[in-house]
Amino acid sequence: SELREPVIGEAAIEALAVAVAAALARRSLVFIQRSAGQQAQRLLHFCQDFWQPLLAALARRPAAGSGRLYWFVVDHACLAGECGGAVCSDEANGGAVDCERLLALPELGAITASQVRTWLGELRKSVGIDLGADRRQQIADYATHPDGNPANVYDRLQREGFWANATSRKGQ
After folding, report:
1. Cβ within 8 Å of residue 35, ≥6 positions away
2. 52-59 vs 13-24: helix axis angle to the nearest 10?
3. What pTM does this model have?
4. How does pLDDT run across 81-119, given as a tens digit for each residue?
5. Distance CA 83, CA 66 (A)
6. Cα gap 16→5, rounded to integer Å
């Protein structure tokens, strides 16, 4: 859906590769995938069953354009298991990582209410969401309250419907 390409029949890696290659001929693409699944070995399955077949299918397509593919998996649960050397978490080698060897971003630390307030304030400039100081404080307190909420503030706000209703909450 992000590529605005219809899926005829069953979704398949080859069809995705065709759509991605066509888009890369015109521009770079950024995908943010919220999870790699529920299984304990989901990182291994992601590499073997999705990423490597996608790369192979893209390699079979003629190179066109200068677009680059950026794919982020934002999985906030521990990713168990080895991936056969396909994932690098060593920051020293990060510059040498390419699509054959994925780079694991460092784990996010705790976030403070002040950081959330600042981020919510900056949304006005970046995407036009204008929240009043009281509303920013309310959201920041709620999103960082230690009640078992996920460390990922974005997902919590998504679940609470913040993003869907953000424009209707102007100035609140």
Report:
1. 42, 73, 74, 75, 77
2. 60
3. 0.59
4. 566 666 776 655 555 556 667 777 766 677 788 888 888
5. 29
6. 9
